[in-house]
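Handoff note, outgoing to incoming analyst
You'll be picking up this chain. Sequence as last confirmed:
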Amino acid sequence: MTGTLVLAGTPIGDIADAPPRLSEELARADVVAAEDTRRLRRLTQALGVTPKGRVVSYFEGNEAARTPELVEELVGGARVLLVTDAGMPSVSDPGYRLVAAAVERDVRVTAVPGPSAVLTALALSGLPVDRFCFEGFLPRKAGERLSRLREVAEERRTLVYFEAPHRLDDTLAAMAEVFGAERRAAVCRELTKTYEEVRRGTLGELAVWAAEGVRGEITVVVEGAGAPPAVGPEELVRRVRVREEAGERRKEAIAAVASEAGVPKRVVFDAVVAAKRAL
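Most recent structure output, in case you need it:
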């Protein structure tokens, strides 16, 4: 029998948010793989639990080398618990590589749900949460950061980012440049901690605020792009005519215009017919 890989969420701030099962798994696991063993020690002391299993480090620097070792433990029947410094493993933290390797070897993977900065920030932002996408950390280099932002400039879903405090002002300024200074956003700082703060406003306003310096763990939530402006019948007809004059057949022209305007083909067809009758 193969073992089990357990991904356990850890508090993002308030230790009281630790799920009860976290203590159980810490005491039960044969191996505890931690992003930072010192932070794990502080966590277990706060929870009043002593891991019975072997504790090993598992962080970005040794993830590639340690993954095969842990997989062999799992294949041999061990219960391996993976924890990161805060939040859920593999969400902008180590873990994905190990999960993928375990799945490839038919090892059972389960989770202890816990606090999430992504979901907490979304809930507190005051922005739409029915549809969202998580973009993680943006590139550090200015050019690459702008390119990444341009890729999602027309994204209609709410966007969630992690960011380091010393880069927040540059990131918000870049977002204001690409998304527009009037796009709404929220900067969530030190979530569930003593100095928790949620600053809401436009990207332009937040960029000015952040220029003074911000500290702490940061999650940025940005409103999605608005719906494209409606295209009226006259404009639809004009676009079809331009395509026809360029050599396209009317059927193909109507389909292309409908696609680019985001309307059903019947709407464009009816507009063309109505315009012809009006002549």
